[in-house]
């Protein structure tokens, strides 16, 4: 089996950039790497992503949102993640089940037990070997995220960025609670600095974990 690494964090924390940089480093070392994301990662799940992240769909109820994430994940896991792991490849995923706990559980304050059951059902028991949590203050992340959205010429995926600061604070608190609960799986990296500084911290945090966990 391959090795499954997820990247998590609040909006604008820099996780997508750090995932890309890790992919480049691993491929330079000769590894076969699949980089993917949630929601999305395959055509059917990408259609659900478009619904979930479109600010025009603000009427989505918290429960409908949760179920859409679960449906997208079920497709993504079976179509992309499981086949790659079975090929012995390294899978890097931008958000996974921890995001649902943080955003829908802590952010939306939905039942954490129900979320756990849905996550287990959608993944078929597939879990990350390692999770990199890029942590930064909410205001720092939101400022970056909104600047990125303003600069994009594509779809404005901003439904979550437009949530209240308190919502994002709950999400961050949820992530940090997960990291405390699963220290054997999580590495927490300070993402408040620039890209280069964060990359140094991610590389240092992963060096021993990658060597020891594979």
UniProtKB/TrEMBL annotation:
GO biological process, one term: dUDP biosynthetic process
EC number: 2.7.4.9
Family matches, as SUPFAM superfamilies: P-loop containing nucleoside triphosphate hydrolases
Gene Ontology cellular component terms for the protein in this record: cytosol
This protein's record includes keyword NADP: no
Keyword Metal-binding belongs to the record: no
Keyword terms of this UniProt record: ATP-binding, Kinase, Nucleotide biosynthesis, Nucleotide-binding, Transferase
Binding residue positions for ATP: 9-16
Thymidylate kinase-like domain location: 7-194
Domain of life: Bacteria
Molecular function GO terms recorded: ATP binding; dTMP kinase activity
Swiss-Prot/TrEMBL catalytic activity: dTMP + ATP = dTDP + ADP
Pfam families noted in UniProt: Thymidylate_kin (PF02223)
InterPro entries: P-loop_NTPase, Thymidylate_kin-like_dom, Thymidylate_kinase
Transmembrane stretches, start-end: none
Recorded family membership: Belongs to the thymidylate kinase family.
Stored HAMAP family: Thymidylate_kinase
Official protein name in the record: Thymidylate kinase
Gene encoding the protein: tmk
